[in-house]
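Q: What would this complex look like in 3D?
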Amino acid sequence: MTAAEKSPDACFRTAVVPAAGLGTRFLPATKTVPKELLPVVDTPGIELVAGEAADSGARRLVIVTSPGKDGVVAHFVEDLVLEHKLEERGKFQLLEKVRRAPGLLDVTSVVQDEPKGLGHAVAQAERVLDDDEDAIAVLLPDDLVLPRGVLDVMCRVRRKRGGSVLCAIDVPKDQVSSYGVFEVEAVPDAVNPNVLKVNGMVEKPAMEDAPSTFAAAGRYILDRAVFDALRRIEPGAGGELQLTDAISLMIAEGHPVHVVVHRGARHDLGNPGGYLRAAVDIALDSDEYGPALREWLEQRLSPDWAPQLTQYE
Ligand code: UTP
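A: Here is my prediction, written as structure tokens for the whole assembly.
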């Protein structure tokens, strides 16, 4: 099935995946391995996100990368030598897995010379868009949003209400200061109670200042007007150009912005704790790894569990 057949209502052709950050929360692994390539069970996070974009009707993936992070783009290039070896050895299941990433989408990369913030990373994508593209999807490869499908709902909201549409998760109040948090109001004629109008956005507020517990979850459908807003904002903390500031400017100028509250799971692959939860969550659902992992976890979590110590003379 082609992307267009899967999701005929897609409101974007290009999915932008910013992958030029330093990944400091994942050091030392990210000293040489880009965090986007760390495997969630057996598949790099960026491939999972690209699959989500393809399922929602994207045709092209624009990866924002940094000098020296070529491996991220290479993951989407066919490796005919490897494919031939797997074929010769009759490893057809592995062959299918290896062919998956190159077959998903047309991949283009743009380079962000220095990590000057998420807004600056997104701005780099403008130069490769076609003139008739009036919106883009942005997917953060750190964020796994499960089950898939929230982009489809977000596109329906854009069709009905115009403007830009973001994804939110409802987080515990004591965690708001780790997120971009939305100031929201109900939409009077909304059929879906999980669609809210956004009146403002604050990056990492103190708990007592947070306007709500609805936090940005790494999925955005942005009107092309975002590029103009990104040109007009000043760098914020750490000299970084914040996407949040560009969205706040658009809201202040009357651009409609809505959120869809995702009620499923969301994992942060950008830190070891969240990454582990994602791997366990996905592995438990897998026919290949789930049963053995579940059995071992039950033993490991049982009060009777004790490590077997080997005695050495
Ligand atoms: P993060 O802030 O979570 O990623 O940005 P980071 O900077 O790599 O992580 P830490 O904090 O040092 O551990 C969210 C996404 O935006 C991208 C990152 O690659 C990540 O996918 N990003 C961030 C850029 O592409 N460029 C930037 O300048 C900043």
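A: To summarize the key features: DSSP finds eleven helices and 13 strands in the chain. The pocket of uridine 5'-triphosphate is lined by residues 18-25, 64, 112, 115-118, 120-121, 140-142, 270 (CB under 6 Å).
Q: Very helpful, thank you.
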